Predict the 3D structure of the following.
Amino acid sequence: MDPALLNQIFYAGMMGLIGAIVFAAIGLVSGTDETTTLAPLTLLVVLLGVPPEGVFTFFLAGAVAKHMTHAVPTALLGIPGDTMATPLLQDCNVLRNLGVPHIALRKMVSGSLIAAFVAVPLAVLFAVMLAPLGPVITKAAPWIFLAAAVLIAYFSAGRWASVGVLVPFVVLIIALQTLTAKYNVKLSISYFLGIAIGPLVADLFSLISPADRQRMRRDKARTFQLAPDVKGWSGYFPNPFKVLDRRQTAWTLATATISSATFVFSPVAMTVVLGELVGSRVKHAYHRLTTVLSARNGVTEATYIAEALIPLIAFGLPLSPVAAGPAAPLFNAPPRFTVDVAAGTSHNLHNLLSHGEFLGYGLLAVVLAALVSYPFAMNYARSAALFVSRKVSHEAIIATFIGLIFVISIWEGQFLGLLVITTMGLIGGLLSRTLGFNSGVQFMGYYTAVLSVPAIIKWLG
Amino acid sequence: MTIDRELPTGRLVEVWGDTADTTHLAWSIVLGVGISVPAFLLANRGLVAWVSSPELAKAYAMLAGLAGCVLAGLICALLFKPKRTVVEGHQADLGWRLEVLTQLAEQHGGLGSVADLPPAVISEMNALEIYDLFNDFETAPLAGRLSNATPGADSPAPDRRAVAASVQGA
């Protein structure tokens, strides 16, 4: 083999390994949203000048590893590991009350592993099929973003309210951009990090307000019950096809395939809908619970991979909630990666890696994540959950994230960055809490403001 | 910090999905900002002279800032203990399990029959010692089993509703 290529693969492998280890650990800490963790660290990797294949492998290995370990707090403690884990919580609680939470965990992690291996080649395949439409899509991108934003808004908890809120929300973003432009500051990550961290910002403001504080008061600490573990295999690397039965494997493969193809919808919505579909086809309640959990966690993994990969490979435009949020630095990380919809051009991983490279490094990322995260989650879940719940206080997590939003916003736009991230966080968090205008819709709102509004203004003359 | 007159339990709040103590939270925010921002700013100043391009210097400064965030988190984890009660070794008692089964039976799709299960699932359920639980629940009348399982419970029916609601609401 060409030594230059070997060198590239080695470098990508190292970056993937770092991503897998870091995000397998982050996944254990509940409440660590994907956008607040994956986006800044990927941005850092991009800006440090890591070669394209290293950036891609880092991101994907991190995402896949995190979606395996997020099952640990979800199944064992009953706290969702991150946003994607929330649709799994109810079934996990039922199995926890039955006294078999470790089964919930193993089914979820195995489903996720199988789905990840299916999703990468399928996402590349779908992207290759869609790629000829690339020029048309790029030309129509402003309108597609607008349509996608309305569609995703309608499918959020707020329904028509969310569709309506899109208008003032987009106006707010344009207003903030006009303000920062007066000082020659152009911001992007501050907006979506503000959106992602919104619920925390809104909660902290509520806490200062005497009017809202009472609602948040608690008279005692939360109690978590941790069941004893039962190890059902020998060795370090359990066979996922033995953890799942044949029907569960089949459903996981089927739902992973479907969710790989539907890349513009919210991954949480896909997880809920496909889970219901599987649930309606399994007769016995226990078998239904375990089958739905394996399929659902598989879907969280597959949608995530597809939503990041398909727009990246086919168009180079962040045309999905995942691409617009956690995967945003793969598309847009100025000055290194840029997207210019008005001119229909982009300079990012889309231009820097070939289809074959996406497939190869994608599979490498999944293999690395599987080697790090899968056996770890299967063997050490219980001690990890115990360690995190006993040693890592919520205050420590909040301190880290408050520091993160300060550093990133000041890094991007000094004082203006801090103003924007606080405004977006507060408004976005409140809208999400009160109207069900969730962060997925808000990400699309940001891109509507940046990409669709200039086209609408031009069209209106 | 003049909250000392309050009892510590009066300071507990639910923020961002978990419980925290307001005083500890205030200090965490101070430490989070106070460590990470100076780390970033100092690195940003200091690195310009050392690193070839200003962009790269800024990226390294961000790394220093993120390291500051993690350091602040570590310090807060050492200073402030979690406000969670973790109960270990909980073996689900029969009463609790039956509540779950009742709730499953009421859900859309119902409990189903063990006769429909493939052999692999039956052996899995046997290994977990829950096969008989499901099998018995199908055949035996519910009310008698519940009062047997929770002796001393005055009114199992409303109790069951409460558990079902808590599982549903989670």
